[in-house]
Amino acid sequence: MRTRTKWLSALAAVAATASAVIAMNPAQAIGPDLLPLNVTNNSGRSEAVHLYVLGTDIRNGRLGYVNQAGAFTPWSPGGNPPTPAPDVSIAGPGQGGTTTLRVPRFISGRVYMSFGEKLKFFLTPDGLVQPAPWAGGDPNSGILFDWSEFTYNDAGLWLNSSQVDMFAVPHAVTVTGASGVTKKTGELKSGGRDAVINGIRGQAGWGGSIMSRSDGTVLRVLAPGKAADVGNFDRNYLDPYITQAWNSYTGRTLTVQPFGDRPDVKYFGRTSGNTMNFTNSAGQQVASFAKPSTANVWGCDGALQAPNDQVVGPIARTLCAALHRTTLDRITTQPGGGPADFYQGAITNHYSRLVHQNMVDGKAYGFAFDDVQAQESLVHDGDPRSAGIVLTPFSGGSTPPPTGSSSSIVSDWHGKCIDVPNWNFADGQRLIVWNCTGGTNQRFEWVNGTLRTENNKCVDVAWGSTANGAAVQIATCSGNPAQQFVLSGAGDLVNPQANKCVDIAEWNPNNDAVLHMWDCVGGANQKWHRG
Fold first, then answer.
1. Which residues form the GH64 domain (predicted)?
2. Options 138, 165, 229, 370, the catalytic residue
3. Which one of 322, 351, 396, 469 has the fewest CB atoms closer than 10 angstroms to its CB?
4. What whole-number distance in Å separates Cα of residue 396 and Cα of residue 359?
5. Among 462, 1, 524, which Cα is nearest to 262's?
6. Is the whole model's pTM more than 0.90, yes or no?
């Protein structure tokens, strides 16, 4: 049996247990005592990456951190108010590089990864205060970061990406077993991050979930419960659906079969007033649930609290998953249906829908009990030899071409090339499109995420702007994020800092049409390929 508990984060004392799937049955130790965890940076971003391995020694419950070599150190007691934790960051890989961490056996916790700025942790006498960027005053709210969750014990490794609280840094997780087979999940489709962000932005009432930095960088999309907590989303959004689904069982029976490997275990629910009562196959009442609020559903808590038992917890998990996926009213045996049946109707968890929809394998942790029916982005191996976290492109599924790969950049729309007009390579020269001639003013080389002319000037977003309409020019290469570009598998030429696409302005089909930055909308005037 596997259970999953959530780490809690708040600007208050928190003594947390790890948010990962834990094997309950003891087993003989297999796998190395220090498991290699390779973090690879294919993000296309130029900022420094900072890594943290934090967790709990599951043998004694002590909270601590792990250094790069794999040594676990318990935290020292903190104070009230919380005191800053020591800097336990590990330098992460640069673009295209890999950093190897070591994870000791019997640790359950998180691997955090941040871009550009180190995270800020705090200690109290009771435990560790972790980043909670949805909370007012959290000092990490302006930092681009995310985490993966793990447990490593004698029964193997469980490693998952998580979108339970937020969707931020695209990354996949992997594990390689003794057989040499590598399992992978959590990878976004080409352009998937943009698709999730734009999908949320286009969903009426959901746009407040998107958190951006003052420079325009989209930092994260908050899960609906977190967005509601800070007043950016309707706190009662699901109430009409919950009432409809709950009341549908006043005159019919809901059958819950919570264990896939034990189909004989069934519980039967009927609603009386606002309470759904469950009996077992012998007719004995075994559980009762008050009608949950929207917040209870988002958190899978409160009226849907799931204790770690064999009856109430499994029923609660099943109900919560069905309410997130809006199947409870339509399918009378739960868990029921499949991905094609989930998230139907105008009122549903569009956040989880969009995240799942944009994953290569459809798997994600869109809410706390998304592992019901195995929809979670989890890899497990009982005899692991190594694991991995791959930071993937923010604006597509491909990495920049290797250094030395000189080519033209051609519009998919009309076949014209990005061009330095009149071979004027002065700083500030705006770029245009022109009939492809093969000239040196139309040749560009990819170097460490920059796009360079043959005389070593960089394609640049003027003044580092993140606004629509910002000019695309050439300038002396400076290492500025305004000079970083990713050509995605979907053909979008994206500056990750602005999270916008190189666009032929005003859909001008003529030679001399200027280039500027614009929201990525998938238009043909934003699609490019190497010539």
1. 32-393
2. 165
3. 469
4. 12
5. 1
6. no
CATH superfamily assigned to domain 239-341: Beta-1,3-glucanase, C-terminal domain (3.30.920.50)
Q: How far apart are CA 164 and CA 247, in angstroms?
A: 28
Q: Would you tell me which CATH number, out of the four given (2.80.10.50, 3.40.190.10, 3.30.750.200, 3.40.50.1000), belongs to the domain 406-530?
A: 2.80.10.50
**Does residue 239 have an active-site annotation?**
no
**Tokens found for residue 249:** 């069982």
Domain boundaries, the chain: 36-231+349-391, 239-341, 406-530
Vertex 528 angle, CA 525 and 426, to 5°: 90
Tens digits of pLDDT across the chain (531 residues): 233 333 333 222 222 323 333 333 445 668 899 999 999 999 988 899 999 999 999 999 999 999 999 999 999 999 999 999 999 999 999 989 999 999 999 999 999 999 999 999 999 998 999 999 998 889 999 999 999 999 999 999 999 999 999 999 999 999 999 999 999 999 999 889 988 998 898 888 999 999 988 777 889 999 999 999 999 999 999 999 999 999 999 999 999 999 989 999 999 999 999 999 999 999 999 999 999 999 999 999 999 999 999 999 999 999 999 999 999 999 999 999 999 999 998 999 999 999 999 999 999 999 999 999 999 999 999 999 999 999 999 874 344 455 555 789 999 899 999 999 999 999 999 999 999 998 899 999 988 788 999 889 999 999 999 999 999 999 999 988 899 988 876 788 999 888 899 999 999 999 999 999 999 888 889 998 887
Q: Which of 47, 146, 149, 187 is catalytic?
A: 149
Instruction: Report the candidate in 156, 146, 177 with the shortest Cα–Cα distance to residue 108.
Output: 156
